[in-house]
Design a protein that fits this description.
Number of strands of chain C: 0
Radius of gyration of chain C: 22 Å
Low-confidence stretches of chain C: none
Radius of gyration of chain A: 19 Å
CATH class of the domain at 1-82 in chain C: Mainly Alpha
Chains: A mainly alpha, B mainly alpha, C mainly alpha
Order of helices and strands of chain A: HHHH
CATH architecture of the domain at 1-82 in chain C: Up-down Bundle
Helix content of chain C: over 70%
Strand content of chain C: under 5%
Mean pLDDT of chain C: 81
Number of helices of chain A: 4
Mean pLDDT of chain A: 82
Domain MrpA C-terminal/MbhD (chain C): 12-75
Strand content of chain A: under 5%
CATH topology of the domain at 1-82 in chain C: Four Helix Bundle (Hemerythrin (Met), subunit A)
Oligomer: heterotrimer
Keywords (chain C): Cell membrane, Membrane, Transmembrane, Transmembrane helix, Transport
Shape of chain A: elongated
Protein name (chain C): Putative multicomponent Na+-H+ antiporter subunit A
Structural class of chain C: mainly alpha
Membrane topology (chain C): Multi-pass membrane protein
Transmembrane segments (chain C): 6-21, 26-47, 53-75, 87-105, 155-173
Order of helices and strands of chain C: HHHHHHHH
Number of helices of chain C: 8
Amino acid sequence: MNLSLDLILDIASWISFGLGAFFLIVGAFGMIRLPDFWSRLHAAGVIDTLGAELIVLGMLFQAGFTIVAVKLLLIGAFVFLTSPTGTHAVANAAFVAGLRPLGLTRDDTAAKTDKGA
Amino acid sequence: MMFTAAMFALAVAMLLVLVRLFAGPTLYDRVLALNAFGTMTVLLIGVVGFMTERPDFLDIALLYALINFVGTIAILKFFRYKDLGQGLAASEEQNSLRDGGSQ
Amino acid sequence: MEAFIDIVLFGFLILTAIAIMRLRNLFAVVMLSGVFSLLSAGLFVVMDAVDVAFTEAAVGAGISTVLMLGTMAMTSREEKPPVHNRLFSFAIAVIVGAALIYGTTDMPPFGSPDAPAHQHVGPDYIERTPKEIGVPNVVTAVLASYRGFDTLGEVAVIFTAGIAVIVLLHGRTRPARTARARKKEKDV
């Protein structure tokens, strides 16, 4: 019984690590390959949310019910809250500074935001 | 074994993000890469702690997660208001100035 | 496996150092120095120096980035091209580096139990701390009790430095950059 539980936890960890590693590397490739800042935001989002949380989850399966698990949960919660906030702040700062997506002139966005407001 | 695999993936991803951090044409690309790099450092410390069977090191990972956020917000506040030394009131004043300027 | 982590971290450190050297944009340099200290703190963790890693994380990656940005608000954003002879600086750096590496050959191997640090007063503190102080962490006992006055002096120095930094950052910005000056700046 105990052995099989360990096995299940190991398999769960492997799956989490595998998926997490996949998202991390895909996100990192996106950071390199995508053409402009606004599309790279998406890649950074993949790293910060799915990639990071899945790796934390994989470690959580190995930690068991210890203080280590509590710390991992805290790390997961902090990353979950702060990463999207940080990404949003970057995007906001870039927009305020006048950075616009590729293939879009400044007048286009100005007209759209005026209509929306 | 699984921690080793995770660490390899982290190392590869960190290298790629580091390239973006060096190259990043705009400052915002660099901040974004810095944020992602910080997140991956947190994960790396955790994974290394598990790999060496001393997961007590997670305290540092926790500290990093917080410092990383504070650093990102400080950098962005600086970009936006061009200054760190002023309080909220001064920022608000500048905001209204900016709105006035664009109309 | 630890050798691999060391190689990866040191490789990143060298890459970061080269990038810091080559970039002229000071914002990017400040961010990269943050990365540099994140990486060195990672190395400290691998070497089991958890307390040093803690300090490096808080001071190097956190506070000094913020302080550098605050400083940059008052100076230029771009580094000026160097006017001195670069070959001379490079020679000095190589000589000092070689001397430091030569110095390390006299040091005991990493983690060696025969190192002077583990021979002199170390065992004495480890033996006496549980009896005399009763805290599990020997470093805390040494810092807060055996060398309490020394620590008090350090705290006073850091406090003074902090006040000085606050005075420097605040005193100059307020009068120089009024609302009108800022508006003028923006219009330009």
